[in-house]
Write a structure and sequence with these properties.
It is built from no helices and 8 strands. With 155 residues, it is mainly beta.
Length: 155
């Protein structure tokens, strides 16, 4: 039996300002509405889709493709399944979580795909909790963070 980890994201400064939509309007957001944990793909990779996260501190909302800044569908796409999770530009701390069933005790690299306008920051925090203990806590979206680009390019 694998261990269930809680995946917490705290995102006080998102630069997306979009109209209100409920999670019920976005098919991808309905995928884990009953709280089913994310399981690893056959190769061991664990994919957590933002629009599947459960909002526990209001602010985060599942959104439809086209309401984001970079609504492209080839090469530079920042979202999958034409859905994403977003929060107001300025708000109190907002938290969304998802459970992950980790069957293979290994070391994992946490990568996050997000949008940010050139020369701006879209800061957010990813926390991973396992057995009541925070095992990962990192700030993402800062201009000083290392970036990993598609096609192997780094900045």
């Amino acid at each position: 039996m694998g261990k269930i980890c809680s995946f917490l994201v705290i995102f006080p400064f998102l630069l997306l300002i979009v109209p209100y939509l409920s999670a019920g309007d976005i098919p991808a957001a309905k995928f884990r509405m009953n709280g089913e944990p994310v399981v690893a793909a056959p190769d061991g990779t664990i994919f957590c889709e933002g629009e599947e996260f459960k909002v526990v501190k209001p602010g985060w909302e599942a959104k439809k493709w086209g309401e984001n800044y970079y609504a492209a569908t080839f090469a530079n796409t920042f979202i999958s399944r034409k859905a994403f999770i977003g929060a107001p530009e300025n708000c109190d701390e907002t938290v969304a979580t998802i459970d992950i069933d980790v069957k293979d005790p290994a070391r994992y690299l946490v990568l996050v795909r997000y949008e940010a306008a050139y020369r701006f920051e879209t800061q957010f925090r990813v926390r991973i909790e396992q057995g009541g203990k925070i095992v990962f806590d990192r700030l993402y979206g800062a201009r000083s963070n290392e970036k990993i680009w598609a096609f192997g390019y780094k900045l």
